[in-house]
Design a protein that fits this description.
- The complex is a heterodimer of chains A (264) and B (238).
- Chain A is mainly alpha-helical and 264 residues long.
- Chain A has 2 domains: 75 residues, no CATH class; 175 residues, MetI-like fold, CATH 1.10.3720.10.
- Chain A has 10 helices and 2 strands, in the order H-H-H-H-H-E-E-H-H-H-H-H.
- In chain A, a hairpin with a 2-residue loop joins strand 1 and strand 2.
- In chain A, helix 2 packs across helix 3.
- Chain A is globular and about 75 Å long.
- Chain B is an all-alpha fold and 238 residues long.
- In chain B, a hairpin with a 6-residue loop joins strand 1 and strand 2.
- The two termini of chain B are 41 Å apart.
- The chains are: A mainly alpha (264), B mainly alpha (238).
- Chains A and B meet through helix 1, helix 4, helix 5, helix 8 and helix 10 of A and helix 2, helix 3, helix 7 and helix 9 of B.
Chain lengths: 264, 238
Amino acid sequence: MNSELNAFLLGMVGVPLVLMGLIVAVYGGETGGILAVIASRTPMLLSGTNDFSSYSGGFAANIIISFWAMLLSLVFGCLLGIGMIAQNRPLRLFSSFVMNVLRNSPWLVVLYAMLYLLPFELRLFGATIYLSPLVKAVFGLALPVTANIAEVFRGGVEAIASGQWESARALGYRRLQILRHVVLPQALPLMTPNLMTTYAMLFIGTSLVVVTGTTDVLSVARTVIASDGEHVATGIYIYVLFLFFVFCFPIAILTRWLERYVRG
Amino acid sequence: MTLDFNWLADPFYQLWLLRGLGTTVLMGLYGIVLMLVIGIAGALCLHFRIPVLDTVVTVLVELFRNTPPLVQLFFLYFMLSEIGLTLTDPVTGRSVPLFSGFTCVVLSLGLYNGAIAVEIIRSGLLAVPPQTVEGARSLGYTRLQTFRHVELPIGLRLSMPAMTNNVVSLIKTSSQAALVAVADIMYGATQIMLETFRNLEVMLLIWVIYIVIASLAVMAMRWIGQAFRIPGYGTQVS
C-alpha cells in the first residue's frame, strides 16, 4: 500500500497546486475575485441547483449517468464476452466483429447517433415511456464501453488455466455452468482492476454528454460562463478539471493497488 | 424507418466531408507526433529520475490522465485566448489569436494521449531485460548512450501493442475538435445535418468513416510493428 499511498499524496497535493498556479498565472491580481465567483457557483456546478435542493444536474448528473451506463454495459458486455468465447463459430466471429466496431468508434459519434436513433417516446404494453436526453446519453455511453467490458471479460476468462475447464467438463458440467460456477469466481478478482479502469474511463467520457442537452457539469459550466462573462471561463474550466480529478484519481490509485494485490 | 442517402450526391456536401476528412487526418498525424515527443521526453525524465522534473512529470501525467480531454480542450482554448496571445495579421491589420482552434486541438490531443504514452513507454522501458542493459554498460556505453541505442529501441518495440490502442484513442478523441469549431469531419457532418435534417444517416456515415480510419491506423501500426520486429525476440504480432 505504501508506494500507492505516496503516489496518492503526491497527486492530491501536486495537481491542485498546479491548477492553482495556472489560475494565478492567468488572472494575476484578480485571482481573489475569480476564486469568489467559483466558490459562489460551486453548489450550481455540483448539483445543478443553487442550494443543493436536488441532485439531478451538474456533477451529480455525471455520477448518475456513469452509474447507469456502467450497469448497462456490464450486462451487455458480459453477454458479448460470452459470445466471443462461444464454441459456435459464426456467433464468435459476429461477437468479435461487433466488439471491434464498437471499440473503434468515437464516443462522440455514438452519442450523436444514439440521440437520433432512439425514439423520443416509446410505447410499450400501452404505456408511453419518454426517453429523456439523460436516458439517451446513458445508452450512447454504454455502447462503446460494452466493447471494453467484453474485452476485459474475455481476457479474464482466458487467463484461467484450461485444466479448470477440462476437469469441470469431466465432472459433467455444461459450458455455461462451468463458466458460472468454476471459471468466473476465479476470473472475477483478475478482472476487477480492469473493470475499475473501464469505469474511470467511462466517467471521464461522461463529459461528452454535454452534446445531448443533459444538464451535466459542463453544460452548467457553460451556463455559468454565459451569465458571468467569458472572463471567468478559464477559472471555471480549471475548477471542472479539479472536480473530475478528485473523483477519478482515487479510483486510479485504488486500481493500481488492487492490481498489485491480485497479481502478487 | 427508411434511410435516405440522396444528400451524398451533392458535390458541395462531398467537398465538406472531404475537407473535413483531410483536417481530421492532419490533426491526427500532428497529434501522434506530439504525443510521441511528449511520451519519450516524459519517460526519459521518469527513467533517469531527474530530481525535480520527474515529480513534475508524475503530477502532470496524473492530471492529464484523470481528467476529460474535452474539458482540457475547452480549458486550453479559453486560457490561450484569456492570456491574449495575438498576432497582427499583416494583410487585414486585424489581430488574430496566435493559437487557432486547430492548434489547441493538436496541443490537447498531444497532452492527453502523451500523458498516457509516458506510462506506456515507461513500462516498455521497464520490460527491457536488465542483462541487455548491463551488457551495454559493460561495453562502455554511457547511461545516455545506453538509453538512446539500447533501452529506447527495445522499449518502444515492446510498447507497440499498447501504443496502437493509444493511437486509436487519439483518433477517436479528435472528433471533439468540432466542439471548438475546428472544421474537421465531425464539424462538416453537423453542418450537413443542420441543412438536410438527415441526422441519422449523416451520423451513421461518419461512424463508418471513423471506424475505417481507426482500422487503417491499427493496420498501419501492425505493419510498423512487423517491419521493426527483431527476429526471434519480443511479442509475436499475429
